[in-house]
Amino acid sequence: MLTVSIPTINDEQRDFDRLFNLWHQVNDDFLKVTFDFSQCGFLRQNAVAFLGGLARMIEQRFGTVTFDWNTLQENIRTNLAQNGFIAAFEHRGRPWHGNSIPYREDISMDKEVLVDYLKTKWLERGWVHVSTALRDAIIGRVSEIYVNAFEHGESEIGVFSCGQHYPSLGVLKLSVVDFGVGIPSNVRVFMHNPRISAESALKWAFQSGTTTKPNGSGRGLGLDLLKKFVEINHGRLEVLSHEGYALIESGQEAYAKRNSYFEGTVVNITLRCDEKYYCLSSETLDESLFS
Amino acid sequence: MRWDIKSLVGEDCITIEDGEKIYDLIHPVLLAGHEVELDFAGVGVFASPFFNAAFGRLLKDFTPEHLDRMLKILNLTPVGRDTLKLVIKNSVQYYSDPAFQKALNEILVEQSEEL
Questions:
Q1: Does pLDDT of A123 surpass 60?
Q2: Nearest to B73 among A187, A225, A289 (CB)
Q3: Which end of chain A is more exposed for a tag (fewer CB within 10 A), N or C?
């Protein structure tokens, strides 16, 4: 039996190291794992999504997971109850509306369910004052994250997400985590080159037109579109996969190697809640489409 | 032939599966030399995998000019148009310039060797 102490987890670089350290701790086929929160003072949305995935990963290996809820500080307990995390594992209690955007697990891509989640739980709660057309435009761009995760992630336990609204900062955050093979692995297999570094693989994946699908229908625009969208919004996009790290923020595009490793992929997106930061369409209706 | 996209795939055109459904409908009609009209009225959410699957592959068999003449896209939102145009531009480059993908891949190898 293994007891894992969950530390305070924000969404800075060192916090991802902490999350990935948790993954390393439980990744060695421990059959009984207890998560203890006595050292935890705060959990951001990325940590909630990641912890949910960790628990399902253990269960998928026929292990058992115990959350020691009694060790939770009251503020975290309230947050995990509100966002539905506790209900997902204990099958008791019901989440309620607040600044948390619900925790969810998706084993496959159900577009109606995911679009409804983004429309009703993420955007349409008065946090972002946008027209219906703009709302749909934002959802279209953010849905690229999910399509990518399901299409390329090969995560047997699915995709985990959670979000948070920060009224004082005027931002919305969303984290999407898969426990699949990771972007670098896909790129290395596709390129028949095991020497490609994780950060180079991420940089390649962000270029317009790159795809690891051989002669398939996908032509790899999703990450590029998402990048441009975040740039327009003055938001922030982070992708972590293996030791690779990609950051899109304030006109900069950076790729780096990190010291900690996680086999799957984490996407962390921060958007500004103000319509002035959205201008997605060129409105060029009179141009021909194909030539 | 004319199809109503909303009745075929719903209000959200996101997934590869939905795109393939449209491709399978229109590809043989276009190959037979007939005109196709697709009405996107009532569809609000678009993502590139749908357009890639539905239209990107058409560039393998048809020129952009031919598609402009034979494939009419109606009532597409401005953001949908922008996304589709990007997908088409990318596909044209891919199918018309074999060196394009090779060049992208070589960049990757060079980057790795530098690190």
A1: yes
A2: A289
A3: N
